[in-house]
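Re-running the complex after MR caught last week's input typo. The corrected sequence lines follow. Everything else is unchanged.
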Amino acid sequence: MSRVSSWRGALVLAALVALPALPFMSKFYLLLAFDALLFGAIAMSLDLLIGYTGLVSFGHAAFFGLGAYSTAILLERGVVSLWACLGFAVLVVGLYALLVSYFATARRGIYFALLTLVFAEVVYTFFRYTQTFGGSDGIQGVPPAQLVPGVAIDTPLANYYAVIVYLALAYALCRVLVTSHFGKVLVAIRENEDRARFLGYNVQRYKMAVCMISALLTGVGGALYPGRSAFATPDLMLWTVSGEFIIMVMIGGLGTLGGPIIGGAFFVLLQEQVSSYVDWYFMVIGLVLVFIVLFMPRGLLGFRRMLGFGQWRATA
Amino acid sequence: MNFAHGELYMLGAYAGIAVIGVTQSFWVALVVAPLLVGVVGAVTEVATLRPLYRREPLYGLILTFGLALVFREAVRQIWGGDMRRILPPITGSTPLLGMTYPNYRLFLLGASSVLLLAIWLFFTQTRAGIVVRAAVQDAEMLDGLGVDVRRVFTLTFAGSAALAALAGLLLAPVFTVYPQMGVEMILLAFIVVILGGMGSMGGSVVAAVVIGLTQSLFSLWMNPQRVAIAIFGIMIVVLVVRPRGFFGREGVLE
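Corrected-run output:
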């Protein structure tokens, strides 16, 4: 990582930390900012797969939803420690991701996408129809998690800072990963899988590893979600949600890490803004997506660079 | 792969409702609605998909996901989100092999058999059908042979849109019509195509029968959600063990 970009990262982080001090930051805007950063971080972890490794996961909603359900289940049963919730989410999502990535990475291209999709549909169907976990209503009205006994993360401000910590750590981890030897191998697999294999790399092991990392980061994001919403519903794992995650990555720009964060935030803000004016916001989102695919295939970040604001580096 | 295919199926049902509203005839709608949706398909293909053929398939996937959102919302704005019904044009029922079947279902059985036969004849017996298959196999070579490949893709997309619309309208009297109906159908359609093997029509038919039977038989001793999971389970096994499906050719979309 160059010194310039770490300075820039620190500046962005400082701005985000200072954001709630602005006078217009009401509870409503804090929660909106929470969503924007949470989904930005999730889009970033999906970018590890799509942008860097060339694997399109159409099942990330299941990792997100499983994380959310793990937390909600513990909180509902009176286990309110944030760390217990996060640990449980990592365990649940990790086991599921191990299974999915083992089978899905054995196949390439469209078959990888379909396998992740079908596995996610199994999880969705399970939670949708299991009455123990609330069926189609999901788990509602869970209490807030506690950082240490007695200190609950129960305000929009506390949730906002929790998501900033998560985003910053996840970004640092992803940045280190993609600049490391491991990240270079991932790009090699994206560019030419057979060549990477002939060079002696165990391609499937690398793919599984990056799948696990991406899934766990997404799962931790999901685990933070009930703190903000007080619920976990099966709708969080619909396959269309997985589609929205991919949209966020595409909007931001594949293979840039920073781009998908912006893409996720942009998507959340767009949805919120448009839906407060008109009730046909899905059409606007659809049209924006069509426009981006047709005219800005490198996303917002790539578009900025295409216009001459710096060199395009998909793999930097 | 086209994520908007389910929405074309849904558009067929709604176009049918519109045409029936004007002409009061299901049969006129059965001809007109697929034609209308076919035109929608052709315009969509030329305007949005055509520029993408030189890029990665992923972009087409994302684009059709966006188109699906647009279509679904457009229908909700025009016709509202309520469930609607179309009355079956054929009423009455016939006793057959100890069971009683509604006549409309028997008509569906006949109509879909005729359709399948017609599609099969098109792909195997006509020059146009062979050109379409050639375009899938090696578009560049076909272009070199003097065929306007772009027109072939447009017409194929329009044809597949019209067929989806036809299916949507034919099934409308059996199911209900609502903006989300395509979303529910498209996954099942994907599963059938994957199980059967891409590019194999016979495979798709076999897979559809296998899934239909599995669903009915499992429903006898399992609750519906277990059945759904079982179907997904079958699909996972097939994808892992034999990703090309029952009869798929090698090399399609790999």
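None of the earlier attempt is carried over here. The interface with chain B takes residues 50, 56, 103, 106-111, 113-115, 117-119, 121-122, 125-126, 128-130, 239-240, 243, 246-247, 250, 280, 282-283, 285-290, 293-294, 297 of chain A (CB under 8 Å). The beta strands of chain A are 139-140, 146-148, 151-152, 231-232.
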